[in-house]
Amino acid sequence: MADEASEYDVVVLGAGAVGENVADRASRTGLSVAVVEPALVGGECSYWACMPSKALLRPGDALAAARAVPGADAAVGGRLDVAAVLARRDEVAAHWDDAGQVAWVEGAGLTLLRGHARFTAPRTLAVQPADGSSRTVTARRAVVVATGSAAVVPPVFAHVRPWTSREATSAHTVPRRLAVVGGGVVATEMATAFADLGSDVTVLVRGDRVLPAAEPFAGEAVARSLATRGVRVARGATVTSATRDDEGVHLVVEHRPVTDGRVGGAAPERLTVDEVLVATGRRPTTDDLGLEVLGLEPGEALAVDDRLQVLGVDGGWLFAAGDVTGRTATTHQGKYDARVVGDVLAARFDPRPDGTRPPGNVPLGLSRDGEAAPAPWSRYRATADVAAVPQVVFTRPQVAWVGRTEAQARRDGLDVEVVTYELGDLAAASVTAVDYAGRAQLVLDAARDVVVGATFVGPDVADMLHAATVAVVGEVPLSRLWHAVPSYPTLSEVWLRLLEAAGR
């Protein structure tokens, strides 16, 4: 048996935002919890994703907002102060020093173990710090895998030292010429940020549109906005060759016609840039965890049920949350899953004597031996992962959506009704900016008279999303939403206009 210092009730692999939340929630009934992290405590979101990327994007947003208002526009001029933007980004990323995050972990009563963890047996791991030593760590009750994901770099870029989201969000110089390969969230946000900072940006999109997970009108709005600011967006583009020398990165790009016929051609393009950012997707970081010892496939997502318990592992002791499950791809949804699994563990393995446990501490439908019955919308089930996931893209304009798109709702066989409204027609728009442009759309299940999806496109629409998320999760009937009176003059008045357009 491992010594006492190396044995804990729960061991969490990964000290990013997801792992921290799992550990904190799991410890609340008195379970001993260790968190294993080989790199910076705080993870991707704190240092290379959510926080530094928004710090890069915010100055351009603020400048554009001021320039859109007569009177304020006269007070601003010139370009962004690049050095100041990067310095502020460094502050937001804590200069890539995790001392503050470590203090939080320790202050929460958790044990931080520095090193890389690999399974050697069920509930048993070898943890190897950077100094090459090793220690055996055993979990009495459960192990939670929250190791996140890593950028996928296609083989064509293997020898050109491409940027991924990490290099882009931590860059200390701005390339004169930047190619962005991809059309998703990272690609469009970083194209926006570096165009603001002065790069000549080309976006190479393999598919027919940017932001393919969103409604088509949202992607088109972002593509138009990028184009008006000098960003070239090439759809139907595939990089077939990439080399690097002292002159930069040389790309050979094949173009094919896209569905609207506006882009394409037989002749390959030769494009030279200073840096190429590859934003073509992410993969779960499960390839070096020793999962084969448990009969699981390394490098694959961990399939879980709604308790975030890993399927196919006997004993019900292995859990996973965040990107490693393939269910979620955002920090906020990963933290939601973390709260669920943390609460499941805290309740299921509550170490307090029966007489001191609060009434109802065992989750609805969850027995002490781990058997479970369905419990929709229980705090012990990650129900929102199915059809109530919110997403914000901090491009200009911003894009925010939750739930199903129109296409998804139709594929799901719902009785679909779609209503839209131009945000520029609201009274609030006239005092927000000259020529304010944006659109709101609701996807309705007409049979149940509820909202199942919502999309907002326009300046500062991210803050409108949570109201839609509440409507989707709560399945609030439209007849009831009619009585939720929006304040005037705010962009939230669009809810009234959408209900009127739906005839409610």
Describe the structure in your own words.
This is NAD(P)/FAD-dependent oxidoreductase. Belongs to the class-I pyridine nucleotide-disulfide oxidoreductase family. It comes from Cellulomonas wangsupingiae. Its cofactor is FAD. The chain is of the alpha/beta class and 504 residues long. The chain contains 15 helices and 21 strands. The chain has 3 domains: 202 residues, FAD/NAD(P)-binding domain (3-Layer(bba) Sandwich), CATH 3.50.50.60; 124 residues, FAD/NAD(P)-binding domain (3-Layer(bba) Sandwich); 105 residues, FAD/NAD-linked reductase, C-terminal dimerisation domain (Enolase-like, domain 1). Strand 9, helix 8 and strand 10 form a beta-alpha-beta unit. Helix 1 runs parallel beside helix 9 and helix 3 packs across helix 7. The radius of gyration is 24 Å and the shape is globular.
What is this structure's SSE topology?
Blueprint: E1 7-13, H1 17-26, E2 33-37, H2 43-47, H3 50-67, H4 82-92, H5 99-107, E3 111-114, E4 116-121, E5 124-128, E6 135-145, E7 149-151, H6 165-169, E8 177-181, H7 185-196, E9 200-205, H8 216-228, E10 232-235, E11 237-245, E12 248-255, E13 265-273, E14 275-278, E15 282-284, E16 318-320, H9 331-348, H10 384-387, E17 390-393, E18 398-403, H11 406-411, E19 416-422, H12 427-432, E20 439-445, E21 450-458, H13 465-474, H14 478-481, H15 494-501
Parallel strand pairs: 1-2, 1-6, 2-3, 6-16, 8-9, 8-14, 9-10
Antiparallel strand pairs: 4-5, 5-6, 7-15, 11-12, 12-13, 17-18, 18-21, 19-20, 20-21
Helix pairs in contact: 1-9, 3-4, 3-7
